[in-house]
Amino acid sequence: MVKIVVMGLSGLLAILTSRLIIEHYGVEAYAQYGLLATLPTLLPFADLGIAAVVINSLAETKSPKTDDFVLRTIITAFRILSVSGLVIISLAVIIHLLGLWPAILGQGLIPAGGSVAALICMALFGCVLPLTVGQRIVVGLGRTTAQVAAQAVVAPFMLVSILTVVALAAPVGSFLAIFSFVGNALVSVICLAVAAKALSPQLRLAVRRIARFKRYPGVPIISLTWPVLVSSVVMPITLQTDRLLLSQLTDGDELAQYNLAAQLFGLILQTIAAAGLAMWPWYAKARSQGRVASPIVPSLWFLSGGVFLGLGMAFASPWLEVLVSKGKIHLDIWLVAGFVAFVAVEAAKYPLGMYMTDRKGLLFQVIPLLIMVPVNLGLSWNLIGVVGAGGPVLGSAIAVLLCQVFPYFWYVRRDLARRRNEQATEELTEGSNA
Fold first, then answer.
1. Taking burial as the number of CB atoms within 10 A of a residue's CB, which of 1, 132, 293, 375 is the most buried?
2. Strands (E), 37-170
3. Cβ neighbours, 10 Å, residue 176
4. For 124-147, what is each residue's pLDDT tens digit?
5. Rounded distance, CA 324 to CA 308, Å?
6. Could you tell me the CA-to-CA distances from 282 to 142, 277, 403 in Å, in that order?
């Protein structure tokens, strides 16, 4: 219920924010705002796969407040994310000094100030990255409701920020995305505070020991993190490059159209992601307790919910596009249909993927994901020329279905059968021994 309320209110405020941007700064500023605000989705590999280790360690322990492995895992996470953040900041500065932002981000970047805005956004992202440990901890503790509630601050912050600059008539059209990064930083701070209270004194001890490498070593993580890291590198290439492709291959309003559709359907995708992520610690705990928990029925329920919500948004989109853009942006049938399909396959995938968060499951995911890169890019590239803004999202939907949903379902069925057979054998052995 919290997820639905938060996403609903956030969606309403985001619509008002988008209308303010389009009305006072224009479609061009709105297009760049969407391009820059979603840059972090291209960098989920920034945590080098440490999220899997943190979430699994917390979900599998019986005493998270005193478990030494949990403490060392958090220390390792802080160290890795701090280094990763510094690397991102350094790369952003180098790209800016070389004047490469226009070449990377394409025609969606506003010439006046766009490059500086991109630098500031990525610098903020790098600075905040270590603080995101709090979000991993909250998820691992099974408190995804708290994480979702924390995200409720972003939309009001964005609306107040845009209202302020509009009231001041500030010429900041190129820099609006910065507010999004500041808002997300607030989420990380809130989650870190929640995690510190829930795990006290673990987080306080971890912060004190970050720089003391010899006395307080971290945990070996490569066996679990490398498949997650591969997935994190592949996923943005396959699913989050849509805006870059449109920015590079089109010169009309396709990027703005995509931004608006992604914003509307993103409300559903965020709700699905929040609900799906909550299942990760549940499946991890089931594994640690020797229970067999199937994700197949939940996957069917997620699929049904995704189709229902996607179609609802599709029917509402003609009214919403007028409300948000005052008729300046039109969402065609291919774009809307593409997002409905994408929502459906993403929904079906989540429970299956959350089940596959042990080492074997994560390893299995690597090959289908690597195959998905050329499949998605090839489909998206070609479909842009055929159906415009809807091309990339249609390509992504087809790629996810072929390279994730189908293979994951095959793996899960085999793994469930194996684990049930093992469980039956153990019960028979225990019965005969008794």
1. 132
2. none
3. 24
4. 999 998 998 888 888 888 777 777
5. 23
6. 8, 10, 25
Higher pLDDT, 41 or 315: 315
Distance CA 65, CA 200 (A): 6
**Of 270, 272, 295, 296, nearest to 282 (Cα)?**
295
275: nearest Cα among 357, 353, 366, 369: 353
| Cα–Cα distance for residue pair 118/244, rounded to 1 Å | 14
Record the tokens describing residue 317, joined without a space.
């989109």
Q: How does DSSP classify residue 113?
A: T
Separation CA 386–CA 389 (nearest Å): 9
- Taking alpha carbons only, the member of 236, 170, 264, 235 closest to residue 403 is 235
Residue 14 has pLDDT above 90, yes or no: no
Residues 6+ apart with CB under 8 A from 220: none
- DSSP assignment string, 176-199: THHHHHHHHHHHHHHHHHHHHHHH
Q: Identify whether the C-beta of residue 45 lies closer than 8 Å to the C-beta of residue 229.
A: yes
Cα dist. 92→84, 102, 282, 384 in Å?
12, 13, 38, 29
The model carries a pTM of 0.70
Q: Quick one: pLDDT at residue 48? A: 60
Using an 8 Å Cβ cutoff, are 359 and 228 in contact?
A: no
Are 64 and 70 within 8 A, CB to CB?
Answer: yes
